[in-house]
Predict the structure.
Amino acid sequence: MSDEISFTLGAPTKTLNELRHMHHRVYAQHRAALALEVSALTVGRRPVVPFERARVVIERHSVGAPDEDGLIGGTKPLLDVLQTFHTKTRPSGLGIIASDAPGCLTLEVRAVKAARGAGKTVVTITEME
């Protein structure tokens, strides 16, 4: 039996272009805020040991759909937050998944059309055996 964690963020993920144009301090603040939000939404549901192999589905609900590379690239801060915690490269990691390396992660990112003001991000993480 595999475990599953699902949560909804209050805003769509940033696009790759938005992230690339952020000052490094603003990016760090964005990642820290994202970690706090994910932490609050998953409290009591995070695994004791990170999922060694996981399927992560991210649905970005927004008015406009970004191009494919902007959509996928914009998920980097979220994936960093989901990974093994408190390493130098992932200071905000929550330890839900062990790694985002190809052998450990199957990633699916979708753009979903939403009404103005209804932007959000739906994340579903499933442990793979």
